[in-house]
Design a protein that fits this description.
By secondary structure, this protein is an alpha/beta fold. It folds into two domains: about 270 residues, 3-Layer(bba) Sandwich (Glucose Oxidase, domain 1), CATH 3.50.30.50; about 30 residues, no CATH class. The protein is about 25% helix and about 15% strand. It is built from eleven helices and 13 strands. The strands form three sheets. A nine-stranded mixed beta sheet has the order 1-13-11-5-7-9-10-4-12. β9, α10 and β10 form a beta-alpha-beta unit. Bound molecules: acetylphosphate. The site of acetylphosphate has 7 residues, from loops.
Length: about 325
């Protein structure tokens, strides 16, 4: 039996479209350029009820937070609390105020977060053609900082793939395409419009809190979007600025056809400049959308301004 060799991501995507240079040689925010003032107003016009949702998962939850295998859990450490004053070691302030302080040690991708456009690359070139050497010692190009400076505001559409498939959560490795997104949208009676922020629910992150941790990480293959040239063309033509999901990596972990890991990180993020928001909690939002049939709304987010960061935590807000 012969097994097909796995191509490199660069070989797989050699004819894939790129937005490099489209917004100038110095651009670092990619498809966020599509989110003009008119798009912000289109988002505002989608607000109907004044209901708000936040999409971040809890940080430092006892029992652990969902992280990409190999990354460590966030650790919050107390450095000052009432105990300091109880044992006479608290700082004396005029007026006798006391305070609590703590620090957190975490992977910048260790919670709900935006990836920098240069976070993942192949063939020694990051988004917009920046050299991979620019990542050494901190990302001097296409870091998360320009995304954080700009912020992300626009009309968003939630596509509930788990509900579309009639299950609470997609199976490990279960895939779907843009055609499945369109079929789900039709069932939800919502239209994915050009420049919409695309939010996809799989139920995966919600299931993390219900599952045995060993089982969750065993043979780790998340469900998600799967690569095809047609899917990439659809994102390109729709000029999607931001892909938001409730999985750790926004796509099926391993492309079942080519065997390449995370090809959409290259095809969408690195080549087209589509920003990725990962590890969101979408279950309460989806339940509300299903209850009243409003699947489009205003989305507002800004990752933290981490200079030279490969990503940064965020707590996006949805206003319906
Ligand atoms: C990796 O870095 C592997 O993935 P993510 O985009 O989830 O951080």
């Amino acid at each position: 039996m012969t097994t097909k060799p796995v191509p490199t991501a660069a070989e797989l995507l050699k004819d894939s479209p790129r937005n490099w240079g489209r917004w100038g040689a110095e651009d670092e925010v990619g498809s966020l350029n599509f989110l003009t003032s008119a798009e912000v107003l289109r988002g505002v016009a989608a607000v109907r009820q004044g209901k708000t949702y936040t999409l971040q998962i809890p940080m430092g939850k006892p029992g652990g937070d969902p992280v990409w295998p190999g990354r460590n859990q966030s650790q919050r450490i107390n450095v000052m609390d009432h105990g300091h004053w109880l044992c006479g070691k608290g700082v004396e302030f005029p007026g006798n105020i006391e305070y609590a302080d703590d620090v957190m040690f975490m992977y910048l991708q260790g919670s709900t977060q935006y990836d920098a456009l240069g976070h993942v690359w192949c063939d020694d070139k990051l988004y917009n053609g920046y050299d991979a050497n620019t990542t050494i010692g901190g990302m001097s190009k296409a870091s998360v900082y320009p995304l954080a400076e700009r912020g992300i505001v626009g009309r968003a559409v939630l596509i509930d793939m788990a509900r579309h498939r009639g299950k609470p959560v997609l199976d490990p490795g279960e895939t779907f395409t843009h055609l499945d997104l369109l079929a789900a949208a039709e069932k939800q009676r919502v239209t994915i419009q050009k420049h919409d922020i695309l939010i996809i629910r799989t139920g995966w992150i919600g299931s993390f809190y219900e599952r045995d941790r060993v089982e969750f990480y065993k043979n780790f293959v998340e469900p998600g979007l799967t690569y095809s040239p047609e899917l990439v063309s659809w994102f390109h033509e729709m000029e999607i600025p931001n892909l938001v999901t409730d999985t750790i990596a926004n796509e099926v972990t391993m492309d079942p056809v080519s065997g390449v890991a995370l090809p959409l990180h290259i095809a969408l993020m690195s080549n087209l400049g589509v920003t990725f928001t990962e590890i969101c909690q979408l279950d309460p939002l989806a339940a509300d959308c299903a209850a009243d049939g409003q699947w489009s709304f205003l989305y507002v987010a800004a990752p933290l301004k981490v200079i030279n960061g490969s990503g940064a935590p965020v707590n996006p807000v949805v206003i319906r």
